[in-house]
Design the sequence.
């Protein structure tokens, strides 16, 4: 049985190595300067790039972080500081349940709330959908990180006559800052790869745009269209875009680990 | 004696404001879930009143005649998720057991990191991999031998074109392995060392200690981890949409195309031009939402029973 357990574990790890290997093997050859600087060309022609999708990903995800981070971190601070009661229990439970909500459902809710009333698809609607996905994630990680702060620090600040809110912000949150930033980065990395919530909100756009009131392309949407399309040229670009998206997610995830190492090294 | 500082009596006004602000943020979460439920209910209402409960078990999906039944998608969602669990659970539990019980110390971090990485791969990338690597591989090397041996069973009937329940289930399995593994690992880490020591002291081998002491102790949590994986699989959209074939049909053959609820919404929502068509898709979304909420709630309660209150596995979620 022990041997079987070891064999199965390595099968699981092998899957990852295979996927990453395929990504690099099939995507790397298509990545050149034009890939990053040009927008897509009409179907059937060769060349072109995904500059529009890269810019779109940064904008849609950045805006989602601007909306989601304050609410998520705030809710997490509440859970850590005042979350002992009934409301705390409820919020914690709801956060966990929301964490498992299918992202496509968030997508159609975002459509109903923003796209339908405003009458057009927009990057902003996509950002709101992604923010909704981030909030429960951030609330839970923030809570965990803030709980790690030793009680003695809080007591020391209160003993010096600090009001509770200043203790909470200047001492507790500051000490946990590295962990909170890590949580935020992990959340951002997670939503950066999301496609389903954007299908009916940000929609996608073949042209380069920086206007958040317009439909906007993201790498994930671009991959979906290219991979399911009929042209070889598109498939090539799909692999390359997938590699870039994976790289982006990986860089953010690694940055998240790096932040924690830096901050916590000095505290412990 | 001077009166105690306001901050110590907890009556400082700015303290109350601070608390109120944080409470507002926290209330956003229950509000959010109510909004989601409300939107789905209101938008699905026309379909609910038009088709009643038979929406759940009829298979006609005809946008022209405006008759809708979600049975094929409900079947496809359950079938693909169960297939995924069948494949993923042995792999994921093995990873968790290996990492907590057998692995040499130096190997733990790298393997855990690799598995975490697997969780970070975007769904649409899995889908792309599924289309261009997994399906050709299945067609060339897996399905022919399978058919040669088990071709007589109802599960392998028909011609295999690629997009199928089998491909969807395998992709889902690869996607949920990291979730189940990460949560199971935390559950196993929460099992007290004394449990293992007691079993080993009785003369058990390490595997016997795992089987007779560690696994039973963490059983509720492990089941919770598996159900959490099930919740993921049920709601997963992009990768499945890209490989499952998207056909409104119920077939027990793994080689035939199928459909899932999430895939139907992703595929058809933008084509849904009539009010009733849209409403039917919202009802599909509502069913999916309710199922995942129930599944997740059960999983959470089971996990909390082992590791009380801790956000177990939140790193992976």
Sequence:
């Amino acid at each position: 049985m022990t041997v079987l357990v070891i064999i199965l574990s390595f099968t699981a790890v092998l899957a990852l190595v295979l996927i990453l290997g395929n990504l690099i093997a099939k995507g790397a050859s298509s990545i050149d300067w034009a890939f990053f600087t040009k927008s897509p060309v009409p179907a059937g022609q060769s060349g072109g790039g995904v500059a529009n999708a890269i810019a779109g990903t940064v904008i849609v995800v950045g805006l989602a972080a601007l909306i989601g981070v304050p609410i998520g971190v705030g809710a997490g601070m509440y859970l850590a500081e005042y979350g002992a009661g009934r409301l705390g229990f409820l919020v914690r439970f709801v956060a966990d349940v929301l964490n498992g909500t299918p992202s496509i459902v968030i997508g159609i809710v975002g459509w109903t709330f923003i796209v339908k009333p405003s009458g057009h698809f927009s990057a902003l609607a996509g950002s709101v959908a992604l923010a909704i996905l981030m909030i429960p994630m951030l609330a839970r990680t923030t809570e965990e990180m803030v709980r790690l702060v030793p009680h003695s620090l809080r007591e020391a600040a209160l003993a010096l006559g600090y009001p509770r809110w200043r203790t909470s912000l200047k001492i507790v949150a500051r000490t946990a800052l590295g962990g909170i930033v890590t949580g935020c980065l992990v959340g951002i990395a997670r939503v950066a790869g999301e496609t389903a919530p954007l299908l009916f909100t940000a929609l996608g756009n073949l042209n380069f745009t920086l206007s958040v009131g317009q439909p906007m392309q993201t790498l994930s949407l671009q991959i979906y269209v290219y991979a399911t399309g009929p042209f070889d040229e598109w498939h090539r670009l799909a692999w390359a875009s997938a590699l870039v998206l994976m790289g982006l997610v990986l860089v953010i995830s690694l940055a998240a680990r790096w932040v924690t190492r830096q901050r916590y090294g000095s505290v412990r | 004696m001077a009166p105690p500082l306001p901050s110590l009596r907890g009556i400082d006004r700015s303290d109350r404001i601070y608390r109120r602000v944080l409470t507002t943020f926290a209330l956003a979460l229950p509000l959010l879930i109510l909004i989601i439920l409300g939107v789905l209910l209101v938008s699905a209402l026309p379909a609910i009143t038009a088709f009643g409960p038979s929406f759940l078990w009829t298979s006609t999906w005809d946008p022209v005649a405006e008759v809708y039944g979600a049975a094929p998608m409900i079947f496809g969602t359950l079938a693909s998720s169960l297939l995924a669990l069948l494949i993923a659970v042995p792999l994921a539990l093995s990873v968790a057991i290996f990492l907590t019980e057998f692995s040499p110390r130096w190997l733990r971090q790298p393997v855990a990191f690799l598995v975490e990485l697997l969780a970070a791969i975007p769904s649409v990338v899995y889908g792309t991999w599924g289309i261009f690597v997994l399906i050709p591989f299945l067609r060339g090397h897996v399905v022919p031998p399978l058919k040669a041996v088990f071709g007589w069973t109802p599960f392998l009937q028909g011609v295999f074109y690629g997009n199928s329940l089998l491909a969807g289930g395998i992709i889902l399995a690869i996607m949920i392995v990291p979730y189940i593994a990460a949560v199971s690992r935390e559950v196993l880490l929460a099992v007290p060392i004394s449990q293992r020591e007691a079993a080993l002291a009785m003369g058990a081998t390490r595997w016997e200690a795992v089987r007779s002491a560690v696994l039973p102790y963490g059983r509720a949590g492990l089941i919770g981890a598996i159900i959490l994986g099930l919740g993921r699989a049920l709601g997963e959209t992009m990768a499945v949409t890209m490989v499952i074939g998207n056909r409104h049909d119920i077939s027990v053959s793994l080689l035939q195309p199928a459909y899932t609820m999430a895939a139907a919404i992703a595929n058809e929502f933008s084509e849904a031009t009539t009010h009733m068509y849209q409403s039917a898709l919202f009802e599909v979304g509502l069913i999916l939402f309710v199922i995942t909420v129930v599944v997740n709630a059960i999983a959470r309660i089971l996990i909390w029973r082992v590791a009380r209150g801790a956000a177990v596995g939140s790193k992976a979620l």
Q: What stands out?
A: Confidence is low (pLDDT under 50) at residues 309-317 of chain B. The two ends of chain B are 53 Å apart (CA to CA). Residues 13-51 of chain B form the longest helix (39 residues).
